[in-house]
Amino acid sequence: MFEGPILHADLDSFYASVEQRDDAALRGRPVIVGGGVVLAASYEAKAFGVRTAMGGRQARHLCPHAIVVPPRMKAYSEASKAVFKVFHNTTPLVEGLSIDEAFLDVGGLLRISGTPSQIAARLRRDVAEQVGLPITVGVARTKFLAKVASGVAKPDGLLVVPHDGELAFLHPLPVERLWGVGKVTSGKLRERGITTVGQVAALSEAVLVSMLGAGTGHHLFALAHNHDPRSVQVGRRRRSMGSQRALGRRRRSPEELDSILSAIADRLARRLRAAHRVCRTVTLRLRFADFSRATRSRTLPEPTEHTEVILAAGRELLADARTLVEDQGLTLIGLALSNLTRDNSIQLELPFDGYETIALDTALDKVRDRYGSSAITRATLLGRPDDLEMPMLPD
C-alpha cells in the first residue's frame, strides 16, 4: 500500500455551512456569520475577499449582497458531535484538533475497510449523508502532509499524496503552507527570496537556524523534508481550554473590555467545572489592528476552578497590557486556561476559605444548566450581544 495511513478531515467553512444546511434560502449565496466581526464566511462570500475575523463593515463593503446571520453556537456544537460520531465509526484512532477537524489513523483497516483513499471517500459520503455538511480530507503518510493535502484540496475535496510523490507535491507549495510560518516568518523568508517549500528544503539546517532561530529553524527544516514522526494520539486530554471575542475596529472603553473579559471568564470557568478540571495558569491573548498578537500569562499559587479567581487574574493581566491596548487598537481578546488537572486530584488546604464563592459558582451552574446560559448573568452584561465569540483552538 503506497498511500496513507493518516487522514486529516476538515469541515468546510463550518459555521456558514451549518447555516446553509439549515436554511435552504442560503444555499449557493454568500453568507457571513456574525455582524460586528466575521466569525465565518461561505465560499461564495470568500470569493469576494471576505475572511474570518474581518470587521463586519469591511466584509459588507466587499460583498454588499451577502446575507449576515447571527451565530448559533448550540447548532454548531451539535453538528460537530454528529461529525465526530462518523469519525469514530470509521476508526477508533481519532485525534480531535478542534470543533471541525481531526486526524484519523486508518492504517490497520485495509482488510476490513479498504485502502485509505477508499475509507476517506466513504467518510466524506457519510458526513454528507448523515450530517449534511461538506468535508475535505487529505490522505498522507504523515500528519503534517495530510493537513497540507486537505488545505490544498478545499473546498469539498479529497487529495491523496502517495508515498513516492510526497516531495514532488510539497516542494512547489508556498512557504506559508508549512506549519509555524505566519506573517512574521513568511516575511523573513520572502525578504531573502525564499517563496516555496522546496527553497526552504534546499537550505541547510544551520542556515535556517541562523536565519529564524533554533526552534523555528529545526522545525521548518524537518517539515520541508516531510519529517514528522508524530502518531495520531487517542484520548489525549486537552492541555488547555480557551475562549475569545473579536471586537471589530471600534475602540472599546475600559468598562466595555472589563465586561467582555467577565463574560469570557464566566463561560470558561463554567466549562472548567463541567469537565471536572482545575487550572493553574491563566493566559490573556490579544490581537491588534495590524494583526500583531501579544500574550500575558500568570500561574496561580493553587489550582482553581472558581470564576472570580480566574477573572481577577485576567483583569491583572489586562491591566499589565494597558499600554499596548491603548496604543495599538485591540481587535480581539481571549483567555486560555492551562496546566489542567482533575478536580479530585488536588489537596485541599486549611483554612477552607472561600466557601461562599464555591457555593455561588455551584448555584449559578445549576440555574444555567436548567434554564439556559442566559437565564442569569452579570449586571454589566445585560443588553450586550454575545454574538462575537470565536472558538479558540486547542494547543
Question: In words, what does this structure look like?
Answer:
This protein has 16 helices and 14 strands. It has 395 residues and is of the alpha+beta class. The protein has 3 domains: 1-161, Alpha-Beta Plaits, CATH 3.30.70; 171-224, 5' to 3' exonuclease, C-terminal subdomain (DNA polymerase, domain 1, Orthogonal Bundle); 240-391, DNA polymerase, Y-family, little finger domain (Dna Ligase, domain 1), CATH 3.30.1490.100. The strands form 3 sheets. Strands 9, 10, 11, 12, 13 and 14 form a 6-stranded antiparallel beta sheet that branches. The chain has a 5-stranded mixed beta sheet with strand order 5-6-1-7-8. A hairpin with a 6-residue loop joins strand 2 and strand 3 (40-41). Helix 4 (73-90) packs antiparallel against helix 6 (116-130) and helix 11 packs across helix 12 (214-224). The longest helix has 21 residues, at 254-274. The two termini are 32 Å apart. 35% of the residues are buried. The model is unreliable at 350-355 and 390-395 (pLDDT under 50).
Write the layout of secondary structure elements.
Elements: E1 6-11, H1 14-22, E2 31-33, E3 40-41, H2 43-46, H3 56-62, E4 67-69, H4 73-90, E5 94-98, E6 101-105, H5 110-113, H6 116-130, E7 135-140, H7 143-153, E8 158-160, H8 166-170, H9 183-191, H10 197-201, H11 205-212, H12 214-224, E9 240-246, H13 254-274, E10 277-288, E11 293-304, H14 307-320, H15 322-328, E12 330-338, E13 341-342, H16 355-371, E14 389-391
Parallel strand pairs: 2-4, 7-8
Antiparallel strand pairs: 1-6, 1-7, 2-3, 5-6, 9-12, 9-14, 10-11, 10-12, 10-13
